[in-house]
Specification:
This protein is an alpha/beta fold. Helix content is about 45%, strand content about 20%. The protein contains 19 helices and 18 strands. The strands form 4 sheets. The protein has an 8-stranded parallel sheet. A 6-stranded mixed sheet has the order 15-14-13-16-17-18, with helices on both faces. Strand 13, helix 15 and strand 14 form a beta-alpha-beta unit. Bound molecules: the ligand O=c1ccn([C@@H]2O[C@H](COP(=O)(O)O)[C@@H](O)[C@H]2O)c(=O)[nH]1.
Length: about 525
C-alpha cells in the first residue's frame, strides 16, 4: 500500500537527517516569465536536494505569471525527485464544492501531495482535501506575519473537554482553538493534518505543541523574516525532536551559495534537535519561550544579556569611554574569567554563527583575547554540530626560531576564515588581522563578536563595525548589539519585571542611542 503524506515525509526526514523544507518562491527569477521561474526553481532544487526534507512552492509567484506561470509550476513540481514531498503553499478554503475543485487542482493538476489551507470556513472546507489518503494538509494556525495577532490571538472561551487547559491562568487564544480543532480533525482523518505556526513566535509554537504533541507543524519565518531558529526548534519540536518542518525560501534562494546555505540551515536545525534530545540547556530556552517575545530579540540573545549582567561583564551606570563619550553601559569581556563562563560564552557565539548560515572553514583568534575565544568557539561548534572546526591564532611578536612566523594552528591559505573577537572599538586590531590573513592568502568571510555597540565614530557617521564591513566586504556578526540591549530592557519594562536600575538604564540607553547611534547600512 502506498504511504500516506506524513509517512513519506517522515521517511525523507530520516533519510537526509533534515527538517529543512526549501521554499520555491521565484522572487529572484531574472525576468518575469514562466521559463525564468522554472529555471530558478530547477536550479534551487538541484542545489538543495541533498538537504531538503520537502519543497514548498508558493502558488502566488506562479499565478502572477498567468498561463505560463501555471505551466512552470507543473514542471517545477515534476522536477522534484519523487522521494521528496511537495507542499503547495496555496492557503485554500471555500465551500465544499469549490474546495473540492481546489483539491483537484492542487493534487491532480499540479501534482503536489501536501497543501496549506486556512480553516476559517470550518470542517467542510477542509474535508475535500482529506479524500485522497496519500495527501496531507497544513492548516494555518498562527502565521508568521506581524499582523497575525489582529485575529489569531483574540481570546476565546476555554474548551470544556480535552487539552487539559481548564486549570490555565493564561487566556485561551483563537489560534489555540484552531490547533485543538485541527487535532480532532487529524484524529478523524487518520493523521492527514498538520498546522502552520510561524517560527517568528516561539511562544505560540510552545503553546500549540502542548495542544497537539504529535502533529506535524510547518514553521515558516526563518531567514528573511528574522525568526529565531533555535528558539523555534526548542519550542516546536515534538518529544522525539522531530515533527517540525522549517520552510526557508529567501534565506536560501538569495544566499550567495544556496547549496551551502541549505546545508548550514540543516546543520543549525540539527543542533537544536540534538539539544532537544539530550535536554542540554533546555532550561534556558524554556524560560525564554514562556514570555512572549517582542521585537527582534532572540531567545538566546536575552540569555546572553542576562548572563553578561550576572557575570558583571555588562555593567550599567556611567562610564567615560576613550572617545570621551559618557556611556550608560560598559562591556568588558575580559571579565569572563572561568571555565564555565567561557563555555557558556562560546555557545552564544556558536549559535550566532550557526544561525547566520555563514559558511567558513577556519576560526581565527587575534592575540590575546581572541585566542581563547576562537578555541572555545571551535569546541562549542564541535559540541553542537559534531563538526571538527579548525582554529588558528597569531602571536603579537614573530618568532625567529622553531617553526617561526606569527601564525599558529590550522592552515589558513585558501581557507574561508571567520575572525573571532570580543568587540570592535576603533577597528585597529581587526585591520591588523585582515592584513595578516590576506598575506597568507586566506579569505576572511566574517567577523564574530560578542557585542556591537552600534554607535557612530567620532569623525564618521559609520560605526567601527560598519567601516570594517564596508572596507572589507565581510559580514560582522555579533551575539547582540545596542538594539538588542534596548529590546531586552524594554521587554522587561513591558512585563513589569524591570527594577529601578533597569528602568533607568532603558531611558539612558535610549538617549545615548538617539545621540550616538548608527543608521543601519542598506543590505
Ligand atoms: O505564516 C506563514 C505562512 C506562509 N508563509 C510563506 O512561507 C514562505 C516564507 O518565505 P521566506 O522567504 O522564507 O520568508 C513564503 O512563501 C510565505 O508566503 C509565511 O511566510 N508565513
Amino acid at each position: 500500500m502506498a504511504m500516506s503524506f506524513f509517512e513519506r515525509l517522515e521517511a525523507r526526514v530520516k533519510s537526509v537527517d533534515s527538517l529543512l523544507c526549501v521554499g520555491l518562491d521565484p522572487h529572484g527569477a531574472q525576468e518575469a516569465t514562466g521559463a525564468a521561474a522554472y529555471e530558478f526553481c530547477k536550479r534551487l532544487i538541484e542545489a538543495t536536494a541533498p538537504y531538503a526534507a520537502a519543497y514548498k512552492p508558493n502558488i502566488a509567484f506562479f499565478e502572477a505569471l498567468g498561463a505560463e506561470g501555471w505551466q512552470a509550476l507543473l514542471e517545477v513540481v515534476q522536477s522534484v525527485p519523487s522521494d521528496i514531498p511537495v507542499i503547495l503553499d496555496a492557503k485554500r478554503g471555500d465551500i465544499s464544492t469549490t474546495a473540492d475543485a481546489y483539491a483537484t487542482a492542487c493534487f491532480k493538476s499540479v501534482g503536489a501531495t501536501g497543501v496549506t489551507l486556512h480553516g476559517y470556513m470550518g470542517m467542510d472546507s477542509v474535508a475535500p482535501f482529506m479524500r485522497d489518503p496519500h495527501a496531507g494538509a497544513f492548516i494555518l494556525c498562527k502565521t508568521s506575519n506581524p499582523s497575525s495577532a489582529d485575529f489569531q490571538t483574540i481570546p476565546c472561551s476555554l474548551p470544556t473537554i480535552g487539552s487539559g487547559c481548564q486549570s490555565r491562568v493564561l487566556p485561551w487564544l483563537l489560534y489555540e482553538e484552531v490547533a485543538r480543532r485541527a487535532g480532532e480533525w487529524g484524529t478523524q482523518y487518520q493523521d492527514r493534518i498538520g498546522l502552520v505556526v510561524g517560527a517568528t513566535d516561539p511562544d505560540a509554537l510552545k503553546r500549540v505543541r502542548a495542544i497537539v504533541p504529535d502533529m506535524w507543524i510547518l514553521a515558516p519565518g526563518i531567514g528573511a523574516q528574522g525568526g529565531d531558529l533555535i528558539g523555534a526548534c526548542a519550542a516546536g519540536l515534538s518529544k522525539g525532536a522531530s515533527k517540525l518542518l522549517l520552510p526557508i525560501s529567501r534565506g536560501i534562494s538569495q544566499a550567495r551559495d544556496p547549496a551551502e546555505a541549505a546545508e548550514a540551515f540543516r546543520a543549525a536545525i540539527n543542533v537544536a534537535r540534538k539539544q532537544a534530545r539530550s535536554q542540554v540547556d533546555m532550561s534556558n530556552v524554556e524560560s525564554l519561550v514562556e514570555a512572549p517575545r517582542g521585537g527582534a530579540l532572540k531567545s538566546f540573545q536575552s540569555d546572553f544579556i542576562r548572563f553578561a549582567l550576572d557575570s558583571e561583564v555588562l555593567l550599567l551606570g556611567s562610564f567615560t569611554l576613550k572617545s570621551g563619550r559618557v556611556s550608560p553601559y560598559f562591556f568588558n569581556a575580559g571579565k569572563f574569567t572561568s571555565g564555565l563562563a567561557l563555555k557558556k560564552l562560546s555557545h552564544f557565539y556558536a549559535r550566532t554563527l550557526l544561525e547566520s548560515g555563514l559558511v567558513f572553514d577556519v576560526l581565527f583568534g587575534p592575540a590575546y583575547k581572541g585566542i581563547t575565544l576562537a578555541s572555545a568557539v571551535a569546541i562549542a561548534l564541535g559540541e553542537l554540530t559534531e563538526r571538527d572546526v579548525p582554529f588558528a591564532y597569531d602571536r603579537k611578536e614573530a618568532k625567529d626560531h622553531g617553526e617561526g612566523g606569527r601564525l599558529v594552528g590550522a592552515a589558513l591559505s585558501g581557507k574561508r576564515v571567520v575572525i573571532v573577537d570580543d568587540v570592535i572599538t576603533a577597528g585597529t586590531a581587526i585591520r591588523e588581522s585582515m592584513q595578516l590573513l590576506t598575506s597568507v592568502q586566506a579569505e576572511v568571510v566574517g567577523v564574530a563578536l560578542a557585542l556591537d555597540r552600534q554607535e557612530r565614530g567620532t569623525d564618521s557617521p559609520l560605526s567601527a563595525v560598519q567601516s570594517v564591513e564596508q572596507q572589507y566586504g565581510v559580514q560582522v556578526l555579533s551575539v547582540v548589539g545596542l538594539r538588542e540591549l534596548l529590546d531586552f530592557f524594554m521587554e522587561k519594562a513591558e512585563n513589569g519585571k524591570a527594577g529601578d536600575g533597569e528602568k533607568e538604564a532603558l531611558e539612558t540607553i535610549r538617549e545615548y542611542r538617539a545621540q550616538y547611534g548608527v543608521v543601519p547600512l542598506q543590505a
